[in-house]
Amino acid sequence: MQHYSPYEIIEAKPTTGLVLLADHAMNRLPAEYGSLGLPAAAFERHIAYDIGVEALVRRVSAMLDAPAVLGCFSRLLIDPNRGEDDPTLIMRISDGAIIPGNHPITEQEWENRLNRFHRPYHRAVSETIGRSAEAHGAAPLVISIHSYTPAWKGVARPWHAAVLWDSDGRAVRPLIDRLEAPGDIVVGNNEPYDGALRGDTMFRHCMVPGISHALIEVRQDLIADAEGVAAWAERLAPILASLNAMPELHRYERHISRTGAYDEEDERP
Length: 269
Prior knowledge:
Blueprint: E1 7-10, E2 18-22, H1 53-64, E3 68-71, E4 93-94, E5 97-98, H2 107-136, E6 141-148, E7 151-152, E8 155-156, E9 161-164, H3 172-180, E10 187-189, H4 201-207, E11 213-219, H5 226-244
Parallel strand pairs: 2-3, 2-6, 6-11, 9-10
Antiparallel strand pairs: 1-3, 4-5, 7-8, 9-11
Helix pairs in contact: 1-5, 3-5
Protein name: N-formylglutamate amidohydrolase
InterPro entries: N-FG_amidohydro, UCP029730
């Protein structure tokens, strides 16, 4: 079986103190999974990956010399931005598309996907954050980048971008303020989703250890081509650089999640 890496690490400069994440960067599947029984067109949709995010994160990473971790498998296989006990970890139906390769699924195959894809990705995230913390001599600032559809169930989404968060707002207010400052875009605050999701990437790697963070969502139609990616990289890079220069965002400070108190399971590495 050909080796398949479930993640890519852009090494860059760990002393930068900034780590970028792209959970849903790619729409790939290992050859043995075929297309999970789906038509090829399904892998061009948001159900398979976050359109535009891979190119955007690569560009911002290069502009800021900041390390990044990219997920290299489609969320249709298993979703890295879900906790291991989340019922939506492996979707049977996504936005109306039935996924034959995921239903039925055996317990053995469920565990196989955790071991081959989900867990290695999260180890890479943890190790990258750890290297940054050691090199920078303080907690890094972690920014996760996603994208969302321009409309949902026929209803247009007015936000050009949004910031999702749980209860640690240290990076959130300055980020929203800077995004809104030019006055040319509408910025959502926990729109179109709520950022408090137990067990997701931000919960696991930032909320539990007390690391400043934010999840940025960009509307997919705005970063669907090279021109849009370049424009948004030029918009985001100086904003993230200014946040990264704030000493208060490089302190460990744990906030209680809106999803409830932490338990022993949350403390796992």
